[in-house]
């Protein structure tokens, strides 16, 4: 699909964001898989919650919150409790002034809960860097990771409810089939810390998901739901950036002042899931409408195949078409940067670079 292509510098920013302290310092064996452990007696219908938490083998997740896998089924594990504390110190220079920083994190793993809380303090020259703590999001970002994952055990053979919650800097977040939110990176801006949340509740093919990219700034808000309808699974989702930047007034040569406007994406989809041996996947048809901008249609095929005991191979293909103002999968890895700068500034150096909504309104993002 034709859309804003990330520049090399944007890719560097995205990579730097992953390594610039948005997550607690972590070892390779820091991952935790968790399930619920709620001591509730079975009622007449035979329902109770049980499970636990365990240390997972190295999986590369490090200190980041686990991205919810909509198709995963929580395991039943023995409960465990663990405590851990880390601290790091660094020194360097910023704009010619000496700079030092200390970063500390405390982790608690208790039953179904995995929590990491930390803070980074910087000293630039002889002053404390108060700009690191001047927004609500800076304080919320002290929650480096919070995860919970549970499954209901039913004694009557009925389908069980599954629940998942992840709080922290979102990495590669995807909602539903990924046609609106695909790979969203909450730490795409290295100069800004952000703590998001992703929750899902499901029973069989019936599910509901909610996601926010930044609890402090509400940069991205989304909800999605799905259910069975005969042989197919139907669903819908709403994704919203309440304050997407846009240059109001003016023209292409000299845009007006920077303002904000809601960026809304409404999606309806139908999916057919299937299995072939150990492989599983889905074929999805998705229709989207972005009010005041455009509409599009996409066909998505995605699947996964276990590769050994500790690896899973994922594959995804998408073919879509949209009107001239339609933004395909708008909330991707570099959205937080593209929403502000989505292209080069016009020649002459007088007009600012266009935002993502500017380009959509100009009609240069649609196509196949």
Task: Tell me what the structure shows.
The protein has 368 residues and is mainly β. It has four helices and 19 strands. The protein has helices at residues 8-19, 136-140, 335-338, 356-362, and strands at residues 32-34, 47-50, 53-55, 81-94, 97-110, 113-124, 127-128, 143-154, 161-168, 173-174, 182-184, 196-203, 206-212, 221-229, 232-247, 258-276, 279-290, 294-306, 312-322. The strands form three sheets. It has a 15-stranded antiparallel β-sheet that branches. The protein has a two-stranded antiparallel ribbon with strand order 1-3. A two-stranded antiparallel sheet has the order 10-11. A hairpin with an 8-residue loop joins strand 13 and strand 14. The longest helix is centred in the first third of the chain and has 12 residues, at 8-19. Mean pLDDT is 75; it is low at 1-78.
Q: Layout of SSEs?
A:
Layout (H helix, E strand, L loop, with lengths): L7 H12 L12 E3 L12 E4 L2 E3 L25 E14 L2 E14 L2 E12 L2 E2 L7 H5 L2 E12 L6 E8 L4 E2 L7 E3 L11 E8 L2 E7 L8 E9 L2 E16 L10 E19 L2 E12 L3 E13 L5 E11 L12 H4 L17 H7 L6
Antiparallel strand pairs: 1-3, 2-8, 4-5, 5-6, 6-7, 6-8, 8-9, 9-12, 10-11, 12-13, 13-14, 14-15, 15-16, 16-17, 17-18, 18-19
Features:
368 residues, mainly beta, 15-stranded antiparallel beta sheet, two-stranded antiparallel sheet
